[in-house]
């Protein structure tokens, strides 16, 4: 019997028009992998998961009564937010940490991780989005991630950021609503660019024309229960307002900045 289920589906109102995703919610590894040769301390770092995102996603799903899909394995095992042909799908080194259990890696082991962890997670996302869109009304997909407060010693000024490719439909109003609080610094495709071929938003939303946005929150702001509750209080009404917009429940395919879609 498999000792680590690769995903968790939080049930909610599938007719409510919204689905939350949390690719990097957890830092777990299957028993047979030990710690991939890393010290235990590595699994409290951002290289293993998105700090604070599991708790934030659970709070938001409960408050909004919407379904959510959580990834239950560490990104150190295999990254669910990468395409199957992405060379960073299984990292050999991450933010200075060499990952002995990932190098060298055989083609057989690479395929095994895809088949047992990566693909089941994405099939769960597909099923959830299909169920939420069964009426023909597109669900609004909001993907939650977190980023480090500093990178290579340089502080990151953003409290949160919205990442996107070219589908602006949910992005522009989300940025506008978040910026209503003038105490917040909200990034637009910072500190990362949201156009990544094969990632979760590309695979499940860009190619199908499903309205979506990816929200990153700085990890020090959601690193404890108080911070998670504060951001859930902030985001829940924003997400609810977004979901009320009928323009965010139609399928429309936008060209990707990464190039033509696969045929």
User: Can you count the helices?
Assistant: 5
- The CATH class, by name, is Alpha Beta
CATH superfamily: Zn-dependent exopeptidases
> How would you describe the shape?
globular
Question: What would you call the structural class?
Answer: alpha/beta
Largest sheet: 7 strands, mixed
Kindly give the count of domains: 1
Q: What is the ordering of alpha helices and beta strands?
A: EEHEEEHEEEEHEHEH
Radius of gyration: 18 Å
Mean pLDDT: 97
* End-to-end C-alpha gap: 37 Å
Secondary-structure arrangement, i.e. CATH architecture:
3-Layer(aba) Sandwich
CATH topology: Aminopeptidase
- Number of DSSP strand runs: 11
Biggest sheet strand order reads: 1-3-2-6-11-9-10
The helical percent reads: 25-40%
Strand content bin: 15-25%
Protein name: N-formylglutamate amidohydrolase
Pfam family, one: FGase
InterPro entries: N-FG_amidohydro, UCP029730
Give a structural overview.
There is one protein chain. With 263 residues, this protein is of the alpha/beta class. The chain has one domain: Aminopeptidase (3-Layer(aba) Sandwich), CATH 3.40.630. The chain has five helices and eleven strands. The strands form three sheets. It has a seven-stranded mixed beta sheet, with helices on both faces. A hairpin with a 2-residue loop joins strand 4 and strand 5 (97-98). Helix 1 crosses helix 5 and helix 3 (171-178) crosses helix 5 (225-243). The longest helix has 26 residues, at 107-132. The chain is globular.
How do the strands and helices of this protein lay out in sequence?
Layout: E1 7-10, E2 18-22, H1 53-64, E3 68-71, E4 93-94, E5 97-98, H2 107-132, E6 140-147, E7 150-151, E8 154-155, E9 160-163, H3 171-178, E10 186-188, H4 200-206, E11 212-218, H5 225-243
Parallel strand pairs: 2-3, 2-6, 6-11, 9-10
Antiparallel strand pairs: 1-3, 4-5, 7-8, 9-11
Helix pairs in contact: 1-5, 3-5
